[in-house]
Amino acid sequence: MISEKDVLFFADKSKQLLGEIGKDMVGQKEVVEQTVIAMIAGGNVLLEGVPGVGKTRLVRSIGRAFTLPFSRIQFTPDLMPADVTGTNVIEKNENGDNRLVFRKGPIFSSVVLADEINRATPKTQSALLEAMQEHTVTASGETYMLDEPFFVLATQNPIEQDGTYPLPEAQMDRFMFKLIMKFPQIEELTEIVTMTQKTMQEQAQPVLSAQELLAMRDTAKEIMVCEEVLAYAMRLVTATHPEIDGASEFTKKYIRFGASPRAGQALITGGKVRALMHGRYNVSIEDIAVLAYPVLRHRIKPSFQAVTEKMAVDELIKKLVEETREKKSPFSPFAPHGNDKKKKA
């Protein structure tokens, strides 16, 4: 049973984390908070933004604040899967006999920065799939467990398409959140330039150990989700599917493919962490609405009509959030079915 002490510890540690990361990051408060939410929840994050907005700096700062083993993989077209996962090498033992020994790759860390992940070939990108989902690595028929906690924080540049390979849908779906790092406002840009004139090194100090992080994750699992909030989250995910009976005209017109069940899991898991970060014992509809953007923006595919009308994915999500809030949808798992209504009548 969750106690007031657990909630206070969770909120206090979260505040310390955000404060330390804030020493290295100017602005981007929403991105920083949602990255921390995903990491506490045990999810992977895809950071998208133009060069120079601080994607790599954010990940390095998080690695310092979490006191976790950190590794960086610079993805390039010539990077091979073995460069990520590791490979078997021949070594001589004390008797001079040859033996095969598995040399672990950079994936064997707690915080893995996959820098410019879309520059690697699909074959190399797929080397991350097993690690991201199962937290294991299989090489030469042997399966190796990754130490917990484990996260992949990947970055990609949205404007440069030459020499890049779009991530397959299966891999995109394994990212809990997709976060957009926008260009800073002029005041923030001035502060960034002033700060980096003093030092380019991260200033964040360790505030959270691996054991404490895992304890916070266990605490989040105890948070209650009322039926109304759960129903809202499930309606929101289901409302992204144009092929389902009862789908709105907006969905049929502007969405081609909807979100997977992982979207529903991410909304609830992330909502629990966000509630605790704000010192609350239960998940609110507002938590779901805020997290709908990072959860859904890489899981729904706009239709040709949306593309021709130049509707951004976030615009589609905003409309879905508003529609789902305004009316009770027949998608609700708790809404009475037609036969039930007749009986009550």
Question: What this model shows, in words?
Answer:
A hairpin with a 2-residue loop joins strand 6 and strand 7. It contains 16 helices and eleven strands. It folds into two domains: 32-207, P-loop containing nucleotide triphosphate hydrolases (Rossmann fold, 3-Layer(aba) Sandwich), CATH 3.40.50.300; 223-344, Helicase, Ruva Protein, domain 3, CATH 1.10.8. Strands 2-5-8-1-9 form a five-stranded parallel sheet. By secondary structure, the protein is of the alpha/beta class.
Topology:
Elements: H1 4-22, H2 29-41, E1 44-48, H3 55-65, E2 70-74, H4 81-85, E3 86-92, E4 98-104, E5 111-115, H5 122-125, H6 129-134, E6 136-139, E7 142-145, E8 151-156, H7 169-172, E9 175-180, H8 186-198, H9 210-221, H10 227-238, H11 249-254, E10 255-257, H12 261-277, H13 285-296, E11 301-302, H14 304-308, H15 313-326, H16 338-344
Parallel strand pairs: 1-8, 1-9, 2-5, 5-8
Antiparallel strand pairs: 3-4, 6-7, 10-11
Helix pairs in contact: 1-2, 2-12, 10-12, 10-13, 12-13, 13-15
